[in-house]
């Protein structure tokens, strides 16, 4: 999927919402806690009620991986379902992979060839040759961690090196990598003020913004500092949507929670003359 | 497994070799390229001929993940085999995971609870709360990336921040994390000179050293700068062992390649009065 396709979808749905599928049996309604294939069925129900309000699904791979083979089976089914029924929606493997070149190549194969995700999140610590194997895929996107939403972000990402903080250096350095136009960047919603600096470095790139909702970031602040002429933002909400209800109306309530965010996003897109 | 158990094994086998299972069908002998269950069968044969010469197996998760469900099935079988037949051998999930706390918790569940690995490699970029969930497991070990063996290591790991390079800061900062005694660190064999500095910071911790063989690092240099009173090193070799032959004698040749390294290691352990 190209970023142009993504922007067209943003305009059509008047939304830049990404729904995070952090699928956790511990939060399931009691009635489906032990039902067969409940990871897939829960995901499918959530997708069906939220798809018209969002432009992306961010699938948190850890939550599938934790269940071993059962989880991987569910992941295959979720991705088949999305690719068959909602091919226009941007899919993100939130996997935070990266390793030496021959190994990153394998992760790229897993997520781009095998599962056919549109994008994957990648950690920058190992540098150029750990990220470039992902960037060789045309019309796929590599979402590099820049400034994350968690407390531990301060440990290394905010360290000063010369005139830059590490996360700024990560962004600047990555722009010289091969196919860097296929990069997107993760910036936590809890770090909305940093978006001003970040937009100076990368005015055009899309940013994936986790951290509104359960983690406490503000959508308005993020939009104010982060929107660009083609929107340029994918704002993720996971728990606030998919666990909006712990009863059997969970899918319906997830749809309503997504709709509420989409309505705010529509206003923000209009206010900023993007739609 | 405790580090004491690991040291006992090092003394018993007179080896600090870790065999890397980067299992790649493209390198398999032609005769088994399309045989059923060949990922597991190849791994099993390699394990059986190398187990007496090594103290650890580093399983490169990407190489299994790339094959989807088939790969995960093979990974289950390889770990069942190791845990049942070679429970004394230290197992490393070379996965380079890490994410916000609730997600790292899931990765820890996958590799420590589900697969019962003794350790996992973890990336430091997201800081304390992305690593501590791994450290809560008693007698399991978290192997933090410090200075990696690849070219891209120079992009960020060698950046100066104050008086430290980033990788030094990663080591120093991580020592304040909860259960930091359960940390080990990755240092590439191609960076053997840095081991002198690193051993000043962490004289006691075990280091996982990839990069001898195909990547060009020197075992002698690594031993000279990295050995401590309880050995403190796990030196990994992957391709040079498991693809020592592309014919049907691959397992036998892998055993011979491992034996050759073990013999050198024995000398180094004796020279340094460790055994």
How would you sum up this structure, described in words?
Two copies of one chain form a homodimer. Chain A has 275 residues and is α/β, with parallel strands linked by helices. Chain A has one domain (3-271): Aldolase class I (TIM Barrel). Helix content of chain A is 45%, strand content 17%. Chain A contains twelve helices and ten strands. Chain A has helices at 3-13, 38-50, 61-65, 68-85, 101-114, 128-135, 153-156, 166-174, 194-201, 219-226, 239-242, 250-271, and strands spanning 17-21, 56-60, 90-97, 119-122, 141-147, 160-161, 164-165, 183-187, 207-209, 233-237. In chain A, the strands form two sheets. Chain A has an eight-stranded parallel β-barrel, surrounded by six helices. A two-stranded antiparallel sheet of chain A has the order 6-7. In chain A, helix 10 (219-226) links the parallel strand 9 (207-209) and strand 10 (233-237). The relative contact order of chain A is 0.15. The mean pLDDT of chain A is 96. Chains A and B meet through helix 3, helix 4, strand 3, helix 5 and helix 6 of A and helix 3, helix 4, strand 3, helix 5 and helix 6 of B.
């Amino acid at each position: 999927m190209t970023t142009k396709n993504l922007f067209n979808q943003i305009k059509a749905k008047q939304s830049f919402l990404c729904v995070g599928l952090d699928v956790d049996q511990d939060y399931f309604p009691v009635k489906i806690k032990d039902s067969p294939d409940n990871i897939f069925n829960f995901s499918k129900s959530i997708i069906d009620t939220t798809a018209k309000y969002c432009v992306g699904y961010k699938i948190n791979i850890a939550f599938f991986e934790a269940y071993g083979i059962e989880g991987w089976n569910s992941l295959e089914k979720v991705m088949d379902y999305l690719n068959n029924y909602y091919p226009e929606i941007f899919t993100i493997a939130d996997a935070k992979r990266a390793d030496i070149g021959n190994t990153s190549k394998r992760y790229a194969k897993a997520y781009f060839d095998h599962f056919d995700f549109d994008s994957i999140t990648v950690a920058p610590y190992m540098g150029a040759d750990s990220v470039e194997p992902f960037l060789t895929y045309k019309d796929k996107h590599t979402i590099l961690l820049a400034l994350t939403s968690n407390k531990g972000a301060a440990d290394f990402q905010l360290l000063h090196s010369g005139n830059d903080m590490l996360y700024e250096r990560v962004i600047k350095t990555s722009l010289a990598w091969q196919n860097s136009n296929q990069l997107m960047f993760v910036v936590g919603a809890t770090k909305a003020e940093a978006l001003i600096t970040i937009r100076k470095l990368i005015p055009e790139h899309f940013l994936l913004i986790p951290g509104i909702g359960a983690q406490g970031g503000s959508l308005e602040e993020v939009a104010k500092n982060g929107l660009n002429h083609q929107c340029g933002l994918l704002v993720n909400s996971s728990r606030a949507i998919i666990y909006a209800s712990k009863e059997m109306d969970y899918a319906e309530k997830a749809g309503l929670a997504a709709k509420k965010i989409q309505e705010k996003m529509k206003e923000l897109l209009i206010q900023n003359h993007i739609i």
